[in-house]
Amino acid sequence: MAAIAVAAMIFTACSKSDDTPAGPSTGPSTGPTPEEPSGKEMPTWIVYEANPRFFATNDCLNALSAQLQRISDLGCNVLWIMPICEPSTASQSVGSPYSIKNYDVINPKYGTLADLQSLVNKAHGLGMKVILDWVPNHTGWDNPWIYEHPEWFLHNNKGEIVSPPGMGWNDVAQLDYSKPGVAEGMSQAIEYWVTAADVDGFRFDYASSPYIPSSFWIDLAKDLRAMKSDMILLAECSDYSFYSYGYDMIYDWGSASTISNAFLTGKTNQIVQKAQAALENVPEGDTILRYVFNHDTMAEQSINTYYGSINALPAAYVCSAMLNGTPLIYSGMDAQGLTGKQSFFNYKTITFSDQLTPVYAAINNAFKKTATVRSGSLADYSDGPVMAFTRTSGNSNMLVMVNCSGSTQKFVTPITLRYTTMTDLINGGSYSIPVEAELDPYGYMILISQ
């Protein structure tokens, strides 16, 4: 029985990678010695990163709200909304939502506070949490703080406010947290949205800024958790220190490029290894964010070529999701007819695909159902273009196989599972493990026995 061929059923035809996939697997039948279990059962959060500018050109929050049921049906239970604050219109502006004019005002093209409150209430009714994207490092050049508190900003030796040094972000002004009042002012601006809109957490942009001290992050986490004990706090960085500061998630920065390389070269041997290395310093009960695309990646890489083909995205998502951590779907991964790079500066209403909903829903359902066994011992069987691994916890076993190529592949299965019957979490029903499994182009299987 071949794995589901999602490409043929769902996506429109598009360009394919020029790379020639490697041939069928002829790897060893016994595989490596399993690693010891980590003992970690991470939260089963599944994040949907929503760029409001992809949902409408005006009244964006209500347009996003109208899509919440579909987003919930994907299996996502955390909605991350990219910056909603009024963006800068200063002469230096380049249209970025990460250049903030007013921290306490919603972008008028997005809607009103009442619209945000309605969206949050609707999300809560669907069992979803809502986190806002927050920009603590810098402001737009027309932010009131520029005029009211110029001493809060970094200055050059001429006494002029400057942009973040060495970053090339000339559209924003660098805050200086060593100055009295900055930390308090920023904390108050952040906490306002918890009170005003009942949001459930934040994703903090450029959390690794050298101009923001650890004391700010520690105090902020304490204050936010005093407001909501189950606040979700995501730091955009790869600094494991943030876990000790009170944050739930940091980034696995290399995950997308590692998976992309596997799909483009037909060599999957680094996916499991690097994912495990990223997990080594994650405390029990915390998690790490993994993604196929986020707003930065999709702005820098073509959606139809970064993984060889647009048809490859669900398979790539399996690689991202099933190796523990918190998976993310970025708005655009669930759309029809997208090609090329997708700037998050622009307002571009895209058409979302209802056909993709059951595809991602099945993967995310498998992610949730395997929470316990995914904390068990790991054995990596990846060979050639097929990423494959097992997890074992007590009497439960999981086998994941992903064909990272656009051609049919055969894969020699682990001898310890051969001829056993497992539950197929993607296609449904039972699957008897053969000596050699056949995987359709960009096909995948997630199997469990209990």
Describe it.
With about 450 residues, the chain is of the alpha/beta class. The chain contains 13 helices and 20 strands. Strand 14 (about 385-395) and strand 15 (about 395-405) form a beta hairpin. Helix 6 packs parallel to helix 7 (about 215-225) and helix 9 packs antiparallel against helix 10. The longest helix is centred in the middle third of the chain and has 16 residues, at about 180-195. The radius of gyration is 23 Å and the shape is elongated.
Write the layout of secondary structure elements.
Blueprint: H1 6-10, E1 47-50, H2 60-65, H3 68-73, E2 78-81, E3 85-87, E4 100-106, H4 113-125, E5 129-134, E6 138-140, H5 144-148, E7 172-174, H6 182-197, E8 201-204, H7 214-227, E9 232-235, H8 241-245, E10 249-251, H9 255-265, H10 269-279, E11 287-291, H11 295-300, H12 313-321, E12 326-330, H13 357-369, E13 377-380, E14 386-393, E15 396-403, E16 409-412, E17 421-424, E18 430-432, E19 436-439, E20 444-449
Parallel strand pairs: 1-2, 1-12, 2-5, 5-8, 8-9, 10-11, 11-12
Antiparallel strand pairs: 3-4, 6-7, 13-14, 14-15, 15-20, 16-19, 17-18, 17-20
Helix pairs in contact: 6-7, 9-10, 12-13
